[in-house]
Amino acid sequence: MLRLAIQSKGRLNEDCTSLLQEIGISVDDSKRKFLSKSANFPLEVLYMRDDDIPQVVSAGTASLGIVGLNEVEEKGFDVKIEARLGFGGCRISLAIPKADEYPGPQYFNGKRIATSYPNILRRFLAGNGIQADIEVITGSVEIAPAAGIADAIFDIVSSGGTLVSNGLKEVEKVFFSEAVLISNGSLSDEDRKSLEEILFRIDSVKVSRGQKYILMNLPESAIEDAIKILPAMRSPTVMPLAAKGWCSLHSVVCADELWEKIRQLKAIGAEGILVLTVDKIIP
Ligand code: PRT
Ligand code: ZN
Predict the structure, then answer these.
(1) What does the alpha-carbon distance between residue 34 and residue 115 come to, in Å, rounded to a whole number?
(2) Does ligand 1 lie within 6 Å of residue 231's CB atom?
(3) Which residue, by CA, sits nearest to atom 34 of ligand 1?
(4) How far does the centroid of ligand 1 lie from the alpha carbon of residue 11, in Å?
(5) What is the rounded CA–CA span in Å between residue 48 and residue 67?
(6) What would the pLDDT profile of 197-238 be if each residue is shown by its tens digit?
(7) pLDDT of 247 over the 70 cut
């Protein structure tokens, strides 16, 4: 049976739990302690600290894991990246005191940089021919310059708010991360089959994210124009209405473009527009 390691608490936990729900794998996490078995899929979920997930998957204690790509890159364990999951997005950046001028990476020559990601940082520094001291600290890296522990930091940034409130500015975006599904390279045939099913389901959830189902009444004379506005997966569905000269048109649009499309559709005579959330798209 597949065993999936996910973060027990923290930023990725909720998104991992929602993903499992969205792909129809029910895990009773109200009773969760350390290990929970799914009621409807050959999978058990192991809850742990994110730092340990790459190692546990590489060692085969868990066959799968969901973790930030940053942890995979930093730890360097031998695991296979099966899918990017589109949540937990962040970057690891170099940041320096706001008032300092930044002439480029040579700024860091001879400086002390605080980080929890020494390996990724070491590679960046080597790649740029920089000699700097790396101070490894876990947690609250952003206070290191004010505390006099370091001159600069190399840490995870998402909105940038933490840097601003600590008087720092981001000067190099070094590594871009998101949550990924990792596997142990040597899965049994049965586990590989279950993994293929999980990947198929994740794909359809990813495709449906940010998509809206839209339906409307439209004068038949406007169908050609509507098709130009709504290039659907193949083409929009058009159905006749009882009222003569009118039809019902259904399509899927990207949520980002929704209001612009609605404006264009109203301009060609669309009425009674309904917009619905798409649960799954199976291409
Ligand atoms: O207890 P455990 O070890 O499991 O958790 P943790 O405290 O090590 O990790 P956690 O829950 O903080 O983060 C888990 C993963 O989420 C990370 O490894 C990243 O892949 C991802 N992630 C996404 C983030 C952020 N966004 C993020 N903003 N991880 C941390 N942060 C922190 C960052 O360290 C900094 O302190 O948020 C702050 C910056 O945020 P902004 O928005 O102010 O820029
Ligand atoms: Zn951690």
Answers:
(1) 30
(2) no
(3) 156
(4) 6
(5) 11
(6) 999 999 999 888 889 999 999 999 999 999 899 876 667 889
(7) yes
- pLDDT for residue 147: 94
Please tell me the distance from the alpha carbon of residue 197 to that of residue 199, in angstroms, as a whole number: 5
Return the residue matching tokens 């973790």.
67
Q: List the residue whose alpha carbon is closest to atom 20 of ligand 1.
A: 68
Using a 6 Å cutoff on CB, does residue 178 contact ligand 1?
no
Angle between helices 13-22 and 189-208 (to 10 degrees): 100
Ligand 1 atom closest to Cα of 157? 44
43, pLDDT greater than 80: yes
Nearest atom (ligand 1) to Cα of 71 = 18
**Given the DSSP bridges, would you call strands 2-7 and 64-68 parallel, antiparallel or unpaired?**
parallel
| DSSP H or E stretch at residue 120 | helix 118-127
The alpha carbon of residue 156 and the mean position of all alpha carbons in its chain are separated, in whole angstroms, by 15
Sign of the torsion formed by the C-alpha atoms of 137, 142, 148 and 151: positive
**pLDDT reported for residue 34:** 87
Which of 86, 81, 69, 85 is closest to 184 using CA atoms?
A: 81
Decide if 86 contacts 176 (C-beta within 8 A): no
Collect all residues with Cβ–Cβ distance below 8 Å to 174 and sequence separation of at least 6.
Answer: 91, 92, 93, 94, 120, 121, 124, 154
pTM higher than 0.85: yes
- For residue 228, which amino acid is it? K
Pocket test for ligand 1, best of 53, 137, 158 (most atoms within 8 A of CB): 158
Q: Distance between CA 152 and CA 145 in Å, rounded?
A: 6
Which residues make beta-bridge pairs with 5? 46, 65
Which token pair is 247?
């039809």
**Beta strands at 43-48 and 2-7: parallel, antiparallel or unpaired:** parallel
pLDDT tens-digit map of 143-170: 999 999 999 999 999 999 999 999 999 9
